[in-house]
Amino acid sequence: MSPFTKSKGMIGLPTRPQRGVILIIVLWFVVIVIIMVAALASETRLSAKTVLYNKMGLQTWNDSLKALRAAEMELLINRMPDPPGTETDIPLSERKNKRYRFDGRILELAYPVPKTVNIRIYDHAGKINIQRLSKQRLRQLLEQRIGNDIERLDALQAAWNDWIDRDELKRLNGAEKDYYEKLKPPYEPRNSRLETVGELLLIKGFAEVFKGVEVDSAFTVYGTSSGVNPNLATREALMLLPGLGGGTVNTILTKRREKEFKSYKDFNEFMEPEQLVKLRPWINFSTSNFYTIAIQAKKLEDTEKSNKEKVDDKKVANKNKLDEQADKPISQPAQSEERAYMVTIQPRGFNQLPRILMVNPYGVLPSTSHEPMIVSDKDKDK
Fold it and tell me: Is the pTM of the predicted complex or chain greater than 0.90?
């Protein structure tokens, strides 16, 4: 074979280095295609999850509004007399006040409620009204938090009086406009009664005193009562009252679920006389016309269970908790912060919608740590 023929026969065949380059190009092409497919698949999954969570969010919002209307109707129904034929044989002295249901427990309402949410209603008679605090009661609250530090108590009272009075005259160790304007960010004192609970923490020294206290759960600015109803009180409010400690507070919160407190005599079973002397001026048994409705979305895994499974699981879990705690000294369990869509309202009769006073989309629920507890009369304050 001639060299020309041999050369002609080899035309079009890549050399070995060329074949290596082509292989690398092919491999890179495959890698790029795989990356593109993976990115597309990931984007598709992300889009699907976005659509799912958007749908869930809209559904939860719709359920929350439906639950809010049902809760408003429940408040209306509880003000009406019972229908004819529904009377019970329970003696009048043993009947429970229907309004005491609004103490923050999870409620079952007369109208159907979506299974995706829990509803709690808080009567503001269970909170401390900071608009109704006398000088003496304010000092007692402060003493409950910081002890009998006379110099500090005097300074806090002076700052409080400077905040609510109408003049610019600063009391000894008090604070007026010139003090608050130097803060970052600066602001001015109200020079009138407090209009919101959060305003309490703006007064000189009060943020430090009530550090760690969820003030919206303990205080209110609505209503005319200067006392707290123990049948409706939040744990945060009770912990601030003179004469009470952790053990006694837990006892009150758990005992009222079985039998409501009707008079001061009911406290004699588990409180010392000196405790009751301090507490008595703070207690009353009235209700208010101001309520906070808390709507809390359930976890997704909870909503996917059937009603029977949820009931059975809850019974088993509660039984286990109660068995564990039955022989243990009382203590406040650690509780993570729970949030809810919270609306404060004032009912205005049977033929009008309630007046909406405040909406807090990310409100913090008052403590529910007492709900799984069993407390005996022998439990002592911690």
Answer: no
